[in-house]
Amino acid sequence: MLKFPFERLDAFQGKSAAIKRPREITQFSFDEQHKHHLDQRSLRYYYPPFVQVPYIPDKHRIDLSQGFETFSRHDDSVNLGLNPLLDTIRHYEEQNGAKLDADILTWRVAPFDFFGEYIEENQAAKAAELQASKDMNQRANKSLDKMQFWGYKFETLATLPKQWQDCTRDEIEGRENEIVDNHAQYCSVVRTGIGNHSIVIGGEVDAVEGCKPDDPNEPIPYVELKTSEDFHAGDNFAAKKFERKMLRFWAQSFLLGVPKVIIGFRSKDGHLQRLEEWKTLDIPSFVKNRGMRSWDGNICINFAAAFLDFLKQHITGEGTWTIEQKKGEKQILLSKIADAYDKDIVPPRFREHRATFNFESASKG
């Protein structure tokens, strides 16, 4: 067992490690039955919900709980692992005749959960937030399932299945009554880099603002859609809680190259109050210069770069490894659990493709 200790975060301060701008390589979709497709059929288009609109009376309040009873929810217990991502990469390599080499291949959420987990060292603040979270979860009208539903409901309210000019009036104005369904998903696959490490990341994208550009070198105007409980100016506890939430919003969007985060602020009982737009790259500077400085973007990036250095140094050759961080401990544990690769993680068909496909011949052809 190997250890990556981080007793103090001071060691990660300073100018951030080099970052390579994420560029989309390809994409794929899950359809309404959550079946994998090598296209962008499930891409949604951002169109704001009818909140704070002059011609709509203030008394009309959008209830994010509407439709909870008919929610068509994907069974998250069925873990597809890396299979959809690897199948997409295999298809990309066969089509382009070039191997997609990278030091790290991962979904957006792992191993970059560590990206923003260790920034707040104020244990008293953590304890207070934990107690507040427990108190919140004890409220009868705020079950975890319903709060998760509010996020999916907001995505339904804020997106269209086609570009605005191609949608019917009913599709645009009837979103409040649309059945919420999270089976269909659109995923982007990007190439990026942190420090000395090349990375290929796959992740779900909520929507695009306008349309994807024809030029593959142009940034894609993707948007990340989030919900958060509204708070009033002067409520420092709520402001700090929101600022820490923004760390995850920023990290998720930053890693995948999503340039904008759109937040739907809601009331305690789940009514949509207002919208707020943030440019992803502006979030760390706001926290540093105008916020409560509860986290530092450079520390996050340097922490991630150092951790990737650690992984690359120790994970060599064949084998299966686990990464673990025990609650309350200031270290991450790396353990080799098998000398052979796990076929549930990297399926044999992908390894066979890499071993037998003639990349050189395909590229010449």
Would you give an account of this structure?
- The strands form four sheets. The protein has a five-stranded mixed beta sheet.
- The chain has one domain.
- It has helices at 83-96, 123-137, 144-157, 169-173, 236-256, 283-289, 297-314, 348-356, 359-364; strands at residues 2-5, 19-30, 36-37, 45-46, 62-63, 104-107, 159-160, 185-194, 197-204, 207-208, 222-229, 260-266, 271-279, 320-324, 331-338.
- With 365 residues, the chain is of the alpha+beta class.
- The termini are far apart.
| Low-pLDDT sequence parts | 118-128
How is the main sheet built?
A: 5 strands, mixed
Distinct helical segment count: 9
Number of β-strand runs:
15
Oligomer state of the chains in this structure = single chain
- Percent of sequence in beta strands: 15-25%
Q: What structural class is derived from the secondary structure elements?
A: alpha+beta
Lateral strand order in the biggest sheet: 3-2-8-9-6
* Rg over C-alpha atoms, rounded to the nearest angstrom: 22 Å
- The arrangement of helices and strands along the chain is EEEEEHEHHEHEEEEHEEHHEEHH
**First-residue to last-residue Cα separation:** 47 Å
Mean pLDDT: 89
Our count of domains comes out at 1
Helical fraction? 25-40%
Gross morphology? globular
Main location: nucleus
Cofactor: a divalent metal cation
Subcellular location: Nucleus
Keywords: Hydrolase, Metal-binding, Nuclease, Nucleotide-binding, Nucleus, RNA-binding
